[in-house]
Protein: S-(hydroxymethyl)glutathione dehydrogenase
Amino acid sequence: AGKTITCKAAVAWEASKPLSVEEIEVLPPRAGEVRVRVTYTGLCHTDYYTLSGNDPEGAFPSILGHEGAGIVESVGDGVEEFKEGDSVILLYTAECKQCKFCKSGKTNLCQAIRATSGQGVMPDKTVRFRARGQDIKHFMGTSTFSQYTVVSQHSLVAVDPKAPQEKTCLLGCGVTTGYGAATNTAKVEEGATVAVFGIGCVGLAVLEGAKACKASRIIAIDMNDGKEDWAKRFGATEFINPKKLERSIVEELVERTDGGLDYTFDCTGNVDVMRQALEACHKGWGVSTIIGVAAAGKEISTRPFQLVTGRKWQGTAFGGTKGKTELPGLVQKYLDGKFKIDEYITHTTTLDELNKGFDYMKAGDCVRCVANM
Ligand code: NAD
Ligand code: DAO
Ligand code: ZN
Structure:
Protein backbone atom coordinates (compact mmCIF):
# COMPACT_ATOMS: atom_id res chain seq x y z
CA ALA A 1 0.00 0.00 0.00
CA GLY A 2 1.09 3.56 -0.62
CA LYS A 3 3.78 2.59 -3.13
CA THR A 4 3.89 2.33 -6.89
CA ILE A 5 3.52 -1.29 -8.06
CA THR A 6 5.38 -2.67 -11.06
CA CYS A 7 3.41 -5.40 -12.83
CA LYS A 8 2.43 -6.66 -16.24
CA ALA A 9 -0.37 -5.32 -18.40
CA ALA A 10 -1.53 -5.57 -22.00
CA VAL A 11 -1.10 -2.05 -23.36
CA ALA A 12 -3.02 -0.78 -26.39
CA TRP A 13 -0.39 1.60 -27.78
CA GLU A 14 -2.26 2.44 -30.94
CA ALA A 15 -5.37 1.57 -32.87
CA SER A 16 -5.53 -1.71 -34.80
CA LYS A 17 -2.22 -3.03 -33.42
CA PRO A 18 -2.12 -6.11 -31.17
CA LEU A 19 -1.96 -5.47 -27.42
CA SER A 20 1.58 -5.36 -26.09
CA VAL A 21 2.18 -7.26 -22.84
CA GLU A 22 4.84 -5.44 -20.85
CA GLU A 23 5.83 -4.02 -17.49
CA ILE A 24 3.93 -1.00 -16.31
CA GLU A 25 3.80 1.09 -13.15
CA VAL A 26 0.56 1.42 -11.22
CA LEU A 27 0.47 4.40 -8.87
CA PRO A 28 -1.19 4.22 -5.44
CA PRO A 29 -4.89 5.03 -5.19
CA ARG A 30 -5.71 8.65 -4.33
CA ALA A 31 -8.68 9.85 -2.26
CA GLY A 32 -11.86 8.00 -3.17
CA GLU A 33 -9.96 5.38 -5.21
CA VAL A 34 -9.19 1.68 -4.84
CA ARG A 35 -6.26 -0.34 -6.18
CA VAL A 36 -7.28 -3.85 -7.21
CA ARG A 37 -5.24 -6.94 -8.11
CA VAL A 38 -7.11 -8.17 -11.15
CA THR A 39 -7.30 -11.97 -11.11
CA TYR A 40 -9.46 -12.74 -14.15
CA THR A 41 -10.95 -10.77 -17.00
CA GLY A 42 -13.35 -11.64 -19.77
CA LEU A 43 -12.84 -10.29 -23.26
CA CYS A 44 -15.77 -8.46 -24.80
CA HIS A 45 -16.45 -7.07 -28.25
CA THR A 46 -16.22 -3.54 -26.92
CA ASP A 47 -12.55 -4.05 -26.03
CA TYR A 48 -11.87 -5.24 -29.55
CA TYR A 49 -13.98 -2.47 -31.09
CA THR A 50 -12.02 0.18 -29.19
CA LEU A 51 -8.71 -1.45 -30.12
CA SER A 52 -9.80 -1.43 -33.76
CA GLY A 53 -9.85 2.39 -33.66
CA ASN A 54 -13.54 2.70 -34.59
CA ASP A 55 -14.73 3.78 -31.15
CA PRO A 56 -15.17 7.57 -31.13
CA GLU A 57 -14.32 7.60 -27.39
CA GLY A 58 -11.25 5.36 -27.84
CA ALA A 59 -8.01 6.93 -26.59
CA PHE A 60 -4.45 5.62 -26.88
CA PRO A 61 -2.18 4.53 -25.34
CA SER A 62 -4.54 2.86 -22.91
CA ILE A 63 -5.23 -0.28 -20.92
CA LEU A 64 -8.49 -1.83 -22.11
CA GLY A 65 -10.68 -4.47 -20.44
CA HIS A 66 -13.89 -3.98 -18.50
CA GLU A 67 -15.17 -7.44 -17.51
CA GLY A 68 -12.99 -8.23 -14.52
CA ALA A 69 -12.83 -9.53 -10.98
CA GLY A 70 -10.08 -9.18 -8.39
CA ILE A 71 -8.93 -8.55 -4.85
CA VAL A 72 -8.61 -5.14 -3.21
CA GLU A 73 -4.91 -4.38 -2.67
CA SER A 74 -5.26 -0.97 -0.99
CA VAL A 75 -7.65 1.95 -0.68
CA GLY A 76 -7.18 5.72 -0.87
CA ASP A 77 -8.19 8.31 1.72
CA GLY A 78 -11.86 8.43 2.59
CA VAL A 79 -12.72 4.98 1.22
CA GLU A 80 -14.79 3.15 3.82
CA GLU A 81 -16.73 0.70 1.71
CA PHE A 82 -13.72 -1.48 0.83
CA LYS A 83 -10.72 -2.98 2.60
CA GLU A 84 -7.65 -4.94 1.60
CA GLY A 85 -8.58 -8.50 0.62
CA ASP A 86 -12.17 -7.86 -0.47
CA SER A 87 -13.31 -9.96 -3.43
CA VAL A 88 -14.65 -7.53 -6.01
CA ILE A 89 -16.18 -7.21 -9.45
CA LEU A 90 -15.30 -4.10 -11.44
CA LEU A 91 -18.16 -1.95 -12.74
CA TYR A 92 -17.91 -0.12 -16.05
CA THR A 93 -21.34 1.27 -15.17
CA ALA A 94 -20.57 2.90 -11.83
CA GLU A 95 -23.01 3.33 -8.98
CA CYS A 96 -22.45 6.23 -6.56
CA LYS A 97 -25.96 6.20 -5.02
CA GLN A 98 -25.82 9.99 -4.74
CA CYS A 99 -26.01 11.59 -8.18
CA LYS A 100 -29.27 12.73 -9.78
CA PHE A 101 -29.28 9.59 -11.93
CA CYS A 102 -28.67 7.15 -9.08
CA LYS A 103 -31.29 8.87 -6.91
CA SER A 104 -33.90 8.98 -9.69
CA GLY A 105 -34.81 5.32 -9.26
CA LYS A 106 -35.31 5.36 -13.04
CA THR A 107 -31.92 4.40 -14.44
CA ASN A 108 -28.67 2.59 -13.70
CA LEU A 109 -26.62 5.17 -15.64
CA CYS A 110 -24.71 6.77 -12.76
CA GLN A 111 -23.02 9.95 -13.97
CA ALA A 112 -20.73 10.58 -10.99
CA ILE A 113 -17.56 9.76 -12.94
CA ARG A 114 -18.96 9.35 -16.47
CA ALA A 115 -17.25 12.37 -18.06
CA THR A 116 -13.76 11.52 -16.88
CA SER A 117 -14.03 7.78 -17.41
CA GLY A 118 -15.08 8.49 -21.01
CA GLN A 119 -11.87 10.48 -21.39
CA GLY A 120 -9.71 7.69 -20.00
CA VAL A 121 -8.73 9.53 -16.82
CA MET A 122 -9.52 9.28 -13.13
CA PRO A 123 -12.04 11.74 -11.64
CA ASP A 124 -9.19 14.16 -10.79
CA LYS A 125 -8.27 14.10 -14.51
CA THR A 126 -4.91 12.37 -14.01
CA VAL A 127 -3.92 8.73 -14.66
CA ARG A 128 -2.46 5.97 -12.43
CA PHE A 129 -0.70 4.01 -15.18
CA ARG A 130 2.77 4.62 -16.63
CA ALA A 131 4.78 2.61 -19.17
CA ARG A 132 7.92 3.41 -21.19
CA GLY A 133 8.02 6.74 -19.33
CA GLN A 134 4.60 7.78 -20.63
CA ASP A 135 1.18 8.22 -19.09
CA ILE A 136 -1.25 5.47 -20.10
CA LYS A 137 -4.99 6.10 -20.20
CA HIS A 138 -7.70 4.19 -18.34
CA PHE A 139 -10.69 2.58 -20.08
CA MET A 140 -14.36 2.59 -19.01
CA GLY A 141 -13.24 3.33 -15.46
CA THR A 142 -11.97 -0.25 -15.10
CA SER A 143 -8.90 -1.23 -17.24
CA THR A 144 -8.91 -4.91 -16.37
CA PHE A 145 -6.17 -5.93 -18.85
CA SER A 146 -3.60 -5.18 -16.13
CA GLN A 147 -2.49 -7.22 -13.12
CA TYR A 148 -3.25 -4.15 -11.00
CA THR A 149 -5.69 -1.35 -11.73
CA VAL A 150 -6.90 1.75 -9.91
CA VAL A 151 -10.59 2.62 -10.02
CA SER A 152 -13.00 5.05 -8.40
CA GLN A 153 -14.76 3.65 -5.34
CA HIS A 154 -17.94 3.93 -7.42
CA SER A 155 -16.61 1.45 -10.00
CA LEU A 156 -16.48 -1.78 -8.00
CA VAL A 157 -18.62 -3.95 -5.77
CA ALA A 158 -17.59 -6.42 -3.07
CA VAL A 159 -19.13 -9.88 -3.39
CA ASP A 160 -19.07 -13.19 -1.49
CA PRO A 161 -15.43 -14.36 -1.48
CA LYS A 162 -16.61 -17.97 -1.87
CA ALA A 163 -17.57 -17.27 -5.49
CA PRO A 164 -14.77 -18.15 -7.96
CA GLN A 165 -13.46 -15.04 -9.68
CA GLU A 166 -12.66 -16.89 -12.89
CA LYS A 167 -16.44 -17.12 -13.25
CA THR A 168 -17.79 -14.01 -11.53
CA CYS A 169 -15.71 -11.74 -13.76
CA LEU A 170 -18.38 -12.34 -16.43
CA LEU A 171 -20.88 -10.52 -14.24
CA GLY A 172 -18.91 -7.36 -15.08
CA CYS A 173 -20.53 -7.21 -18.52
CA GLY A 174 -21.99 -9.83 -20.87
CA VAL A 175 -23.96 -12.14 -18.58
CA THR A 176 -25.42 -9.37 -16.42
CA THR A 177 -26.28 -7.31 -19.50
CA GLY A 178 -28.42 -9.98 -21.16
CA TYR A 179 -30.01 -11.27 -17.97
CA GLY A 180 -30.80 -7.75 -16.76
CA ALA A 181 -32.22 -6.72 -20.14
CA ALA A 182 -34.93 -9.37 -19.72
CA THR A 183 -35.46 -9.10 -15.96
CA ASN A 184 -34.83 -5.38 -15.25
CA THR A 185 -35.34 -3.46 -18.48
CA ALA A 186 -38.09 -5.36 -20.29
CA LYS A 187 -39.48 -6.98 -17.14
CA VAL A 188 -40.72 -9.96 -19.12
CA GLU A 189 -43.77 -11.37 -17.38
CA GLU A 190 -44.93 -14.93 -16.85
CA GLY A 191 -46.47 -16.44 -19.96
CA ALA A 192 -45.02 -13.78 -22.32
CA THR A 193 -43.60 -14.60 -25.75
CA VAL A 194 -40.00 -13.55 -26.41
CA ALA A 195 -37.65 -13.46 -29.42
CA VAL A 196 -33.91 -12.94 -29.09
CA PHE A 197 -31.85 -11.93 -32.13
CA GLY A 198 -28.15 -12.89 -31.87
CA ILE A 199 -27.14 -15.80 -29.67
CA GLY A 200 -23.74 -14.78 -28.32
CA CYS A 201 -23.02 -14.37 -24.61
CA VAL A 202 -25.49 -11.50 -24.35
CA GLY A 203 -28.27 -13.26 -26.26
CA LEU A 204 -27.82 -16.45 -24.23
CA ALA A 205 -28.11 -14.43 -21.05
CA VAL A 206 -31.35 -12.87 -22.34
CA LEU A 207 -32.64 -16.43 -22.87
CA GLU A 208 -31.66 -17.28 -19.31
CA GLY A 209 -33.41 -14.13 -18.04
CA ALA A 210 -36.57 -14.79 -20.08
CA LYS A 211 -36.68 -18.34 -18.76
CA ALA A 212 -36.26 -17.06 -15.18
CA CYS A 213 -39.25 -14.75 -15.85
CA LYS A 214 -41.25 -17.84 -16.98
CA ALA A 215 -41.82 -16.72 -20.55
CA SER A 216 -44.04 -19.23 -22.39
CA ARG A 217 -42.20 -19.19 -25.73
CA ILE A 218 -38.62 -18.11 -26.25
CA ILE A 219 -37.53 -17.95 -29.88
CA ALA A 220 -33.81 -17.70 -30.57
CA ILE A 221 -32.63 -16.30 -33.92
CA ASP A 222 -29.11 -16.59 -35.31
CA MET A 223 -27.53 -16.99 -38.72
CA ASN A 224 -25.11 -19.53 -37.25
CA ASP A 225 -26.73 -22.98 -36.98
CA GLY A 226 -24.15 -23.90 -34.38
CA LYS A 227 -26.08 -21.67 -31.97
CA GLU A 228 -29.22 -23.83 -31.96
CA ASP A 229 -27.94 -26.28 -29.33
CA TRP A 230 -26.59 -23.42 -27.29
CA ALA A 231 -29.90 -21.59 -27.39
CA LYS A 232 -31.89 -24.66 -26.34
CA ARG A 233 -29.58 -25.26 -23.38
CA PHE A 234 -30.22 -21.71 -22.16
CA GLY A 235 -34.00 -21.90 -22.38
CA ALA A 236 -35.00 -21.30 -26.01
CA THR A 237 -38.10 -23.24 -27.02
CA GLU A 238 -37.49 -22.64 -30.76
CA PHE A 239 -34.58 -21.70 -33.01
CA ILE A 240 -34.71 -19.96 -36.38
CA ASN A 241 -31.89 -19.39 -38.85
CA PRO A 242 -33.25 -16.46 -40.91
CA LYS A 243 -31.00 -17.39 -43.85
CA LYS A 244 -32.97 -20.61 -44.26
CA LEU A 245 -36.39 -18.99 -44.54
CA GLU A 246 -38.23 -18.36 -47.76
CA ARG A 247 -39.91 -15.28 -46.32
CA SER A 248 -38.64 -12.49 -44.09
CA ILE A 249 -37.90 -13.21 -40.45
CA VAL A 250 -40.52 -10.61 -39.49
CA GLU A 251 -43.25 -12.39 -41.47
CA GLU A 252 -42.15 -15.73 -40.06
CA LEU A 253 -42.27 -14.50 -36.46
CA VAL A 254 -45.56 -12.62 -36.81
CA GLU A 255 -47.15 -15.69 -38.38
CA ARG A 256 -45.74 -18.14 -35.82
CA THR A 257 -46.89 -16.06 -32.86
CA ASP A 258 -50.36 -14.96 -33.96
CA GLY A 259 -49.47 -11.32 -34.53
CA GLY A 260 -46.02 -10.86 -33.06
CA LEU A 261 -43.97 -11.11 -29.88
CA ASP A 262 -44.59 -9.51 -26.51
CA TYR A 263 -40.86 -8.84 -26.14
CA THR A 264 -37.95 -8.86 -28.56
CA PHE A 265 -34.24 -8.15 -28.02
CA ASP A 266 -31.47 -7.20 -30.40
CA CYS A 267 -28.14 -8.72 -29.34
CA THR A 268 -26.37 -8.29 -32.70
CA GLY A 269 -25.56 -4.58 -32.97
CA ASN A 270 -26.85 -4.69 -36.58
CA VAL A 271 -29.29 -1.84 -37.26
CA ASP A 272 -31.26 -3.86 -39.83
CA VAL A 273 -31.79 -6.56 -37.22
CA MET A 274 -32.89 -3.89 -34.73
CA ARG A 275 -35.64 -2.90 -37.19
CA GLN A 276 -36.71 -6.54 -37.63
CA ALA A 277 -36.84 -6.95 -33.86
CA LEU A 278 -39.13 -3.94 -33.52
CA GLU A 279 -41.39 -4.94 -36.38
CA ALA A 280 -41.75 -8.50 -35.07
CA CYS A 281 -43.41 -7.06 -31.94
CA HIS A 282 -47.13 -7.46 -31.38
CA LYS A 283 -49.32 -4.52 -32.35
CA GLY A 284 -50.60 -2.56 -29.36
CA TRP A 285 -48.07 -3.68 -26.75
CA GLY A 286 -44.91 -5.37 -28.06
CA VAL A 287 -41.68 -3.96 -26.64
CA SER A 288 -38.32 -4.24 -28.39
CA THR A 289 -35.11 -3.71 -26.43
CA ILE A 290 -31.85 -2.79 -28.16
CA ILE A 291 -28.79 -4.22 -26.43
CA GLY A 292 -26.36 -4.52 -29.36
CA VAL A 293 -23.95 -1.65 -29.89
CA ALA A 294 -23.99 -0.51 -33.51
CA ALA A 295 -20.88 0.66 -35.33
CA ALA A 296 -20.12 4.39 -35.13
CA GLY A 297 -22.39 6.51 -37.32
CA LYS A 298 -25.08 3.85 -37.84
CA GLU A 299 -28.73 4.91 -37.46
CA ILE A 300 -31.95 2.99 -36.88
CA SER A 301 -35.14 3.49 -38.84
CA THR A 302 -38.70 2.22 -39.11
CA ARG A 303 -42.02 3.66 -40.16
CA PRO A 304 -43.32 5.79 -37.26
CA PHE A 305 -46.64 4.00 -37.71
CA GLN A 306 -44.99 1.00 -36.02
CA LEU A 307 -44.82 3.06 -32.84
CA VAL A 308 -48.14 4.85 -33.36
CA THR A 309 -49.72 1.42 -33.38
CA GLY A 310 -48.38 0.58 -29.98
CA ARG A 311 -44.99 -1.03 -30.37
CA LYS A 312 -42.30 0.42 -28.11
CA TRP A 313 -38.57 0.77 -28.82
CA GLN A 314 -36.11 1.05 -25.96
CA GLY A 315 -32.46 0.33 -25.16
CA THR A 316 -30.44 -0.82 -22.20
CA ALA A 317 -26.88 -0.56 -20.90
CA PHE A 318 -25.54 -3.24 -18.54
CA GLY A 319 -29.06 -4.67 -18.52
CA GLY A 320 -30.33 -1.76 -16.45
CA THR A 321 -28.37 -3.28 -13.58
CA LYS A 322 -27.17 -1.21 -10.63
CA GLY A 323 -23.88 -2.96 -9.94
CA LYS A 324 -23.48 -2.33 -6.22
CA THR A 325 -27.13 -2.95 -5.43
CA GLU A 326 -27.65 -6.03 -7.58
CA LEU A 327 -24.44 -7.98 -8.24
CA PRO A 328 -24.08 -9.44 -4.71
CA GLY A 329 -27.54 -10.97 -5.20
CA LEU A 330 -26.63 -12.44 -8.59
CA VAL A 331 -23.47 -13.93 -7.07
CA GLN A 332 -25.63 -15.51 -4.36
CA LYS A 333 -27.99 -16.94 -6.98
CA TYR A 334 -24.96 -18.40 -8.75
CA LEU A 335 -23.67 -19.96 -5.51
CA ASP A 336 -27.15 -21.39 -4.91
CA GLY A 337 -27.06 -23.04 -8.34
CA LYS A 338 -29.91 -20.88 -9.64
CA PHE A 339 -27.96 -18.82 -12.14
CA LYS A 340 -25.52 -19.96 -14.83
CA ILE A 341 -22.09 -18.43 -15.36
CA ASP A 342 -19.68 -21.34 -15.99
CA GLU A 343 -21.64 -22.42 -19.06
CA TYR A 344 -20.78 -19.25 -21.01
CA ILE A 345 -17.03 -19.87 -20.86
CA THR A 346 -15.84 -21.64 -24.03
CA HIS A 347 -12.20 -20.48 -24.05
CA THR A 348 -9.53 -19.46 -21.60
CA THR A 349 -6.25 -17.64 -22.07
CA THR A 350 -3.60 -15.82 -20.05
CA LEU A 351 -2.44 -12.23 -19.84
CA ASP A 352 0.62 -13.16 -21.93
CA GLU A 353 -1.67 -14.45 -24.67
CA LEU A 354 -4.50 -11.98 -24.41
CA ASN A 355 -4.41 -11.30 -28.15
CA LYS A 356 -5.34 -14.94 -28.72
CA GLY A 357 -8.59 -14.19 -26.91
CA PHE A 358 -9.50 -11.74 -29.68
CA ASP A 359 -8.73 -14.42 -32.29
CA TYR A 360 -11.06 -16.83 -30.49
CA MET A 361 -13.74 -14.14 -30.38
CA LYS A 362 -13.58 -13.68 -34.13
CA ALA A 363 -13.78 -17.41 -34.88
CA GLY A 364 -17.55 -17.78 -34.25
CA ASP A 365 -17.54 -20.69 -31.78
CA CYS A 366 -16.50 -18.55 -28.81
CA VAL A 367 -19.13 -17.41 -26.35
CA ARG A 368 -16.79 -15.99 -23.75
CA CYS A 369 -13.03 -16.21 -23.27
CA VAL A 370 -11.66 -15.59 -19.77
CA ALA A 371 -8.03 -14.62 -19.20
CA ASN A 372 -6.10 -15.65 -16.09
CA MET A 373 -4.10 -12.57 -15.20
P1 NAD B 1 -21.41 -12.14 -30.14
O1 NAD B 1 -20.68 -11.72 -31.36
O2 NAD B 1 -20.84 -13.23 -29.31
O3 NAD B 1 -22.88 -12.60 -30.57
C1 NAD B 1 -23.58 -12.01 -31.61
C2 NAD B 1 -24.41 -13.11 -32.29
O4 NAD B 1 -25.24 -12.47 -33.25
C3 NAD B 1 -23.58 -14.14 -33.03
O5 NAD B 1 -23.97 -15.46 -32.63
C4 NAD B 1 -23.92 -13.90 -34.51
O6 NAD B 1 -23.93 -15.10 -35.28
C5 NAD B 1 -25.30 -13.29 -34.40
N1 NAD B 1 -25.68 -12.45 -35.54
C6 NAD B 1 -24.93 -11.53 -36.16
N2 NAD B 1 -25.64 -10.96 -37.15
C7 NAD B 1 -26.87 -11.51 -37.14
C8 NAD B 1 -28.05 -11.34 -37.92
N3 NAD B 1 -28.08 -10.48 -38.93
N4 NAD B 1 -29.13 -12.07 -37.61
C9 NAD B 1 -29.10 -12.98 -36.61
N5 NAD B 1 -27.99 -13.19 -35.83
C10 NAD B 1 -26.90 -12.47 -36.11
O7 NAD B 1 -21.65 -10.83 -29.26
P2 NAD B 1 -22.07 -10.63 -27.71
O8 NAD B 1 -20.87 -10.60 -26.85
O9 NAD B 1 -23.16 -11.54 -27.37
O10 NAD B 1 -22.61 -9.11 -27.78
C11 NAD B 1 -23.77 -8.83 -28.52
C12 NAD B 1 -23.92 -7.33 -28.70
O11 NAD B 1 -24.20 -6.72 -27.45
C13 NAD B 1 -22.69 -6.62 -29.25
O12 NAD B 1 -23.13 -5.62 -30.15
C14 NAD B 1 -22.10 -5.97 -28.03
O13 NAD B 1 -21.32 -4.85 -28.33
C15 NAD B 1 -23.35 -5.61 -27.27
N6 NAD B 1 -23.23 -5.35 -25.84
C16 NAD B 1 -24.04 -4.40 -25.32
C17 NAD B 1 -24.02 -4.12 -23.97
C18 NAD B 1 -24.94 -3.10 -23.38
O14 NAD B 1 -24.79 -2.79 -22.21
N7 NAD B 1 -25.92 -2.58 -24.12
C19 NAD B 1 -23.14 -4.81 -23.15
C20 NAD B 1 -22.35 -5.82 -23.70
C21 NAD B 1 -22.39 -6.07 -25.05
O1 DAO C 1 -23.29 7.42 -20.91
O2 DAO C 1 -23.83 7.06 -18.85
C1 DAO C 1 -23.43 6.66 -19.93
C2 DAO C 1 -23.09 5.21 -20.00
C3 DAO C 1 -22.60 4.80 -21.31
C4 DAO C 1 -22.20 3.37 -21.29
C5 DAO C 1 -23.08 2.56 -22.15
C6 DAO C 1 -22.49 1.25 -22.40
C7 DAO C 1 -23.30 0.49 -23.37
C8 DAO C 1 -22.66 -0.60 -24.01
C9 DAO C 1 -21.28 -0.89 -23.69
C10 DAO C 1 -20.88 -2.13 -24.33
C11 DAO C 1 -20.28 -3.11 -23.45
C12 DAO C 1 -19.26 -2.68 -22.55
ZN1 ZN D 1 -24.55 7.96 -9.43
About this structure: The chain has twelve helices and 17 strands.
